[in-house]
Inverse folding.
């Protein structure tokens, strides 16, 4: 049975809003997963801080969510996700928050995961970048051998791409990589995007240009839920992105989708999902 911190009732007079007191425990999340797979192969894993369980009341203004924490009342949590969060923002669902009480933070609580019928779904769009970076270094991404390095936030033309991978010993060309977060699944198909995104199409155009100049470029989609069995572009939502994706593939951009395996203790880089890019 998974464990999660459930805060004790707040003392009389305690705050019951976004500036509520932090959980007492400062320990890392319970039950840390092993750091290596059978055979000693390294495993890309991001541990979570201690999480607090609550119930989602509503999500609003893109970056905010009201969450009811038992014994502590209503808190306002920062939502690190700018998308529509289709299929993972249903009021009444259990959600899991982290607390960061640093000076100057207006909303010290941050929403990390929600429990849907399929299991835990991650809402933090920064997690996929961290997972893919670790997976590249560990050799967990197909076609990228272990021992290389990865730099974050790399300028390319008019865009800023997520990662630049450098092969071990600089034995070959570098590869520029864009990472996309996916939390929408319909009928077993993971779909991206859940809202029209000119910025996402711009990233694909940049990758296509890189590939047409004869340099390596890749798109890695990370599906933060367990019920995605394949990946497809959401053509009905953003047909321009679907066309851009197929054009990038034709130009030589490598496209891959992987599952993020989520537990309350952390997230592990999971297996590769098949692609279905047919319009």
């Amino acid at each position: 049975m998974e464990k999660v911190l459930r805060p004790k009732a707040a003392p009389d007079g305690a705050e019951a809003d976004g500036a509520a007191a932090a959980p007492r425990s400062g320990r890392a999340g319970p039950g840390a997963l092993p750091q290596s797979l059978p055979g000693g192969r390294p495993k890309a894993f991001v541990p979570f801080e201690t999480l607090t369980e609550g119930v989602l009341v509503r999500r609003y203004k893109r970056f905010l969510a009201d969450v009811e924490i038992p014994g502590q009342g209503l808190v306002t949590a920062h939502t690190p996700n700018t998308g529509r969060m289709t299929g993972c923002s249903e009021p009444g669902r259990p959600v899991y928050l982290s607390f960061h009480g640093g000076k100057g933070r207006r909303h010290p609580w941050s929403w990390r995961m929600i429990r849907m019928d399929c299991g835990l779904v991650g809402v933090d769009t920064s997690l996929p970048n961290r997972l893919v970076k670790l997976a590249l270094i560990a050799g967990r991404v197909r076609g990228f051998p272990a021992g290389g390095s990865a730099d974050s936030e790399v300028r390319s033309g008019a865009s800023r791409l997520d990662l630049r991978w450098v092969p071990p010993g600089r034995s070959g060309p570098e590869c520029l990589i864009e990472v996309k977060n996916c939390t929408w699944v319909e009928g077993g198909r993971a779909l991206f995007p859940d809202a029209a995104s000119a910025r996402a199409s711009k990233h694909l155009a940049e990758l296509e240009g890189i590939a047409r100049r004869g340099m390596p470029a890749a798109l890695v989609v990370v599906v933060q839920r367990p019920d995605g069995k394949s990946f497809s572009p959401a053509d009905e939502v953003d047909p321009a992105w679907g066309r851009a994706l197929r054009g990038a593939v034709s130009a030589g951009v490598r496209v891959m989708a992987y599952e993020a395996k989520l537990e309350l203790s952390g997230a592990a880089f999971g297996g590769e999902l098949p692609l279905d890019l047919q319009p």
Remarks:
- The CA atoms of residues 83 and 195 lie 7 Å apart.
